[in-house]
Records
---
Amino acid sequence: MSIIKHFLADPKLLLNAVGEGIYGFDLSGNAVFVNPAAERMTGWQSAELLGKKIHQYHHHSHADGSEYPADECKIYKTMFDGKTRQVQHEVFWRKDGSCFPVEYTSTPIYKDKQIIGAVAIFRDVSQQHNTENALREALNKVQVLTEQLKDENAYLLETLNENWQDSGLVGNSDIFQAMLAQLELVSKTDSTVLILGENGTGKELVARNLHRLSERSSQPFVKVNCAAFSPTLIESELFGHEKGAFTGANEKRKGRFELADKGTIFLDEIGELPLEAQSKLLRVLQEREFERVGGSKSIRVDIRIVAATNRDLRQMVEEGSFRMDLYYRLNVFPIRVPALRERIEDIPVLANNLIMQLNKKLGKQLKGISKKALYALQGYDWPGNIRELQNILEREAILSKGRLLDLSQSLNLSEQTRAEHGVLTLAQAEAEHITRVLDMCNWKISGTNGAAEKLGLPESTLRSKMKKLKISKDP
Ligand SMILES: Nc1ncnc2c1ncn2[C@@H]1O[C@H](COP(=O)(O)OP(=O)(O)OP(=O)(O)O)[C@@H](O)[C@H]1O
């Protein structure tokens, strides 16, 4: 007998060989056929099911355990209406009481145009479900990580765009050294620090060094310029927002406080923080806890807070534009960064340091600055502080053809000072005059045609004045 004949003689051979489970039903819903694949999947042997209402064995309940009445059974329905059904999201129950997700087709069986029963062909889709769930979980994780990366990336890009020069704090004057000593002491603690000082004095550099010297140095240092955001946006910038918290909040976003967890947050221009955000900040300072805008879940962070301002916060408290309780919370350890005019003796070393940075930035090989130019710099009162010095040196460095900056473009600085700020101090005028005379005398101090004689001073007095005013020939 050929193989085809075998199959035609006994169609069960085929049905027994397929991988899908097959149940055949008569019109009363009793099992008339159960193939081995169905036995394997359900654990019920065909002898246990044949002639029985099979719904009661493998289809009695839904996945959540609630009852699945027989008159709702989709396999039975096929026997009544003759419609073929493809069914998903249902379970079949095993003999051991467990269940598995199935997909099945129930098809009516006709004989002489009369329905005589139905056949259900089913597949165990647990594997497929597990894979789908794993995929869904992986996708969720990817989504969370993508959001996190987006937040961090936006922040990093902003930081990169600032073109921050990672310069050290330079200066030997007593006032500056005293500030450095304070900085070093407080860096070892977790205390909140309030950095005070005029624009361009180096407050941000102080904050960065505070973090660098602290035990949090391997964790993030996150800066927020409180003046750079509108009152409506600053809260979401600091604390983040939930999706849909306000028009335009299309995605959930982490705030700077969350990004700075375990590290340091630097709140620059804290005096510009709107009152509403001040209240929220106060709560973070008290409880280290906050909620995202539009959210209700409290988020805890472990953060060191450093704030800076050029404003007089105490006066702002008196005027009612800064919360008194917040002021006291921030003012735990104030550090005052001196203005450049308070430490003109640092100008030579600062200028040299800045020129070395400019060499790198501009690809130049400048050696320093001329003596005359240096005196001019020391006679100016620097309303823009180190940033102004930096700008002047950069402009000069770009224009300069020689190795030594002579500040030919900016030598009228002291005149500018006089014009913009009234008069030179006596010491500045004295230093300028002595330097001019020394230049005239080719730096000969004593004897005939020496500077002391021209100035009408004893040589020793001139020398002590030069020492006091830090006037010397070499740059
Ligand atoms: N002691 C220093 N030594 C060398 N460079 C310094 C020093 N202090 C400040 N600078 C440089 O001066 C510039 C201004 O410093 P910084 O931005 O820290 O000032 P700031 O007080 O935060 O200014 P603002 O109040 O305008 O934000 C920076 O480029 C910084 O590198």
---
Amino acid sequence: MTGALSLRASHETRGLDVALEVKPGEHVAILGPNGAGKSTVLSLIAGLLRPDTGRAVLDDRTLFDERTFVPPHARGVTLLAQDPLLFPHLSVLDNVAFGPRASGATAKQARATAETFLDEVDASEFVDRRPAQLSGGQAQRVAIARALAARPSLLLLDEPMAALDVAAAPLLRRVLKRVLADRSALIVTHDVLDALLLSDRLIVLDHGRIVEDGPTQDVIARPRTPFTARIAGLNLINGTAASGTHLVDAHGVDVSGAPTEQLATGESALAVFSPNAVAVYETPPHGSPRNTFEVTVVELEPRDAQVRVRAHDRAGHTLLADLTASSVGELDLYPGKRAFYSVKATAVTIYPS
Ligand SMILES: Nc1ncnc2c1ncn2[C@@H]1O[C@H](COP(=O)(O)OP(=O)(O)OP(=O)(O)O)[C@@H](O)[C@H]1O
């Protein structure tokens, strides 16, 4: 299988300095806050931007180094942007056939290729339509077919779901999952769900640097940065291991939990727990071996059948608790109210940072 990428690149004005690998057939998601450099990474690989230094190799072909700069069309890489960017005056079929035709296929071959890939994205029924006659989700599927028709070794997806309404996203996600099988892809997304569903590995970028890189589920379950914890919807406290099962943060908050491995006293460590595991009280709870955090409620956010209560503890950590609406009513919670978050040690995972 093809699609092995090795990238090392820096771009000073964009504040980027990264090194990453994609294995053949692997799907790597890139998450990160706005301005972290996610699109810049894709632009460097696609050849839309020149790095200051670095080297990229795709399947033994150098895309760039200090002497080489392969132009975008010759890289074997296709970038699928948020906006499908279809030619408005061409039919769906001709939009997809355009690439193969431009790279030398006969009109008949190019159309046959287009039909194959439109079928692959469940878009055969609208081959004769113009882009203006398509919904956002349909247009994006056509754009995927067009990207695949170029037979890239590596697909670059820049927030493929971002421009779609909520109802259209699940179908596109299913199509993407299917077409990405056996193809290498780098997927920039804001959505942790997309990362979980579409990627094997997750890279988190922050300020132009890679701050997390690992199997997607591990990175989500054991975040190392507040950003990852937030997008994963988990509570994260960093500090140092105080004993086998305790962590103390910089403000002296003591958290007891279940360590994933043996921790030496003084070693940097992280404690993570789910908002579901948090019980909320108006007065300090007594009598059980629980972690208690005195907090001030900052925000109440309705989410499906629950309410997510966002609060700050005295050390400034943002801590989340998921409660039923009736509990929120009974506790009379509102922004500014003082409350106590309580979480059992068994619900807290402690691991080295
Ligand atoms: N065309 C440009 N010219 C100059 N600087 C740019 C340009 N595009 C982005 N930048 C800067 O480069 C840095 C990285 O931006 P980039 O768009 O790659 O981030 P991103 O992670 O994709 O962000 P977002 O999630 O907002 O799309 C930012 O500091 C940004 O301001």
